[in-house]
Structures are given as C-alpha cells and as structure tokens.
Amino acid sequence: MFSSLAPARRRFVFVVLALVLVGVVAAVAAFVASRVTSDPVASVDQSVPGPVLLVPGFGGSTDALDVLAAGLREDGRDATVVALPDGGVGDLTVQAQTLRDAADEALNRTGATSVDVVGYSAGGVVARIWAADLGGAEQARRIVTLGSPHHGTQVAGLAAQVLPDRCPTACQQLAPDSSVLAALNSGDETPEGPQWVSIWTQLDQVVTPPNSAELDGAIAIPVQSVCADSTVDHGNLPRDPLVAAMVSAQLGSSSTTQLGAADCSRLSS
Q1: Buried-exposed string 20-30: b where 16+ CB fall within 10 A, e elsewhere
Q2: What is residue 36's predicted lDDT score, i.e. its pLDDT?
Q3: Can the peptide bond before residue 209 be classed as cis, meaning omega within 30 degrees of 0?
Q4: What does each C-alpha distance from 178 to 150, 157, 174 come to in angstroms?
Q5: d(CA 10, CA 98)
Q6: Within a 13 Å sphere around the CA of 25, how many CA atoms are in the beta-carbon half?
Q7: CA 182 to CA 192: how far, in whole Å?
Q8: Residue 129 to residue 142: CA distance in whole angstroms
Q9: How far from 8 is each of 11, 15, 18, 38, 249, CA to CA, in Å?
C-alpha cells in the first residue's frame, strides 16, 4: 500500500498514522478513567424515613393502595398514592415522570431529604424507570416493589400477540420481550443509592411466572417464604395484613432485612 510512495512521503504518512493512533488511545484511556473515577450516587441517610409514595399498577386504580397507605399513616408515616396519567395504561416512561414530579413535590412539602417508594405491580417497573433514568436513585431511600413484572409477564405477552388492539402501551411494555424491560434489565437492575426489596406471591396469576418479580441486587421475599400458608394473590397484595406488615418492616428506620419463616408469627399477629 505504501511501497509506491517516496521514502520521505512514506515516513510522513507513518508519523501521521502514529499520531492518530496515540490520540485514539489517549481518548479511550480518558473515557475509561472518567467512568472509573466518577463519583457514585450518594446514598441518602437510611436512618431518617421520609414521605412514602405509593405507585399503582396497570389501570391506575388507587383502591388497593389506599388501604396500604392508610396503614402506613397509622404508623406515623406521610403516605401519598400517586395518581397516574392516562388511566395507568399509557407509556410507563410518562408514568415515571409523574412519579418524579410527585417526589419533588413531597420533598418540597415536607422538607425531607428522601422519599420511600412502594410500587405495586407495574408501579414497581415505573419506580425502576424513575430511579434509573430520572434521578430517582438520588432521592429514594427505599424502593419496595409488590408483585412487579420486572422481567415481564406472559399474560401481557399473550395479550400483545393475540389481542393487540386491547393491549395498550403499558400492556405492550410489560411483555417479556419489550424494549422497555430489555433496557431496564440490560445493566444494573437495582441502581446504586436506595435499598431495594421485592415482595411477591408464589400464587400470582397475573405476573407469570411469579418469580419475574425478582430483581438482581434486591432482597427477594416471596410471601409464602415467610408464612407458608398464605393464600394472597396478586390483586390482594396491597390489602393483605401480612404484606402490609412486611412493607412496614422494610420502611422502618433500620436497614432493610431478609424475612423468613421465623418472622411469620411476629408479622401476622
């Protein structure tokens, strides 16, 4: 390729190529260094509970979460159920923006330094989008999800294939192969900052398979691993007294903790 060039011209070309190669290597090294030395997200003070935001599931109904919110208020917590746009069936990213606005409002209203978030069903996916893409990881102290299809649900996947006209945007995004879930699960499933807990029922017939609710990096608590005789299904997770006690335990002033059979009598009393 270079044999036809005069010696002086050949040396010049080699020098230019060497300089270009050095520049590329330096740029790559600088990029890698910036990624390694960038400051991690600062965790908020885990010992100081702030207001609680509860995010509804697909369809946006607040009835079930109103029960859970009332129980948290009895515990002395400031608890608000977030009203989702588009009846809770629209774009999950837009719903996450609504959660972002609700978090900003709660922090401004209370003067707190962080919020706790409880996401029910699709609301847990909304909480993850908020944490990963909209600054939520810097505002959240705890994120607890209840029966959330973090890796999709076959129910939504089937609906998207068989009845696409009756499977609105959020339904399509909850299919196991959706681009939204692929993006969420391609990296760190539990961004640094908040402590993460996933509570779910082995009897879930809406989130299928039920262990789609598990998150890498989160404490995973199937309800039946605490009380083996629990018959709570998906729709009753926010209403169930045992689940409410589990949520309250995870939102306390101490750190989140793995729960097991030894805790059943204490939490169900």
Answers
A1: eeeeeeeeeee
A2: 38
A3: yes
A4: 11, 9, 7
A5: 62
A6: 6
A7: 19
A8: 15
A9: 5, 11, 15, 45, 77
pTM: 0.84
Between CA 220 and CA 188 the distance in angstroms is 16
Side by side, the strands of the sheet bearing 79-81 are 79-81, 52-55, 115-120, 140-146, 195-200, 219-222
Tokens coding 188:
């760190």
> What six digits make up the tokens of 143?
């994120």
End-to-end C-alpha distance for the chain, whole angstroms: 83
Task: Assign 11 to helix, strand or coil.
Answer: helix
Residue 51: how many other CB atoms lie within 10 Å: 21
13, 2 Cβ separation under 8 angstroms:
yes
Question: How far is it, in rounded angstroms, from Cα 43 to Cα 182?
Answer: 26
Per-residue pLDDT at 1: 52
Number of neighbouring beta carbons within 10 Å of residue 59: 14
In the chain, % of residues over pLDDT 70: 84
Structure tokens belonging to residue 244: 């409410």
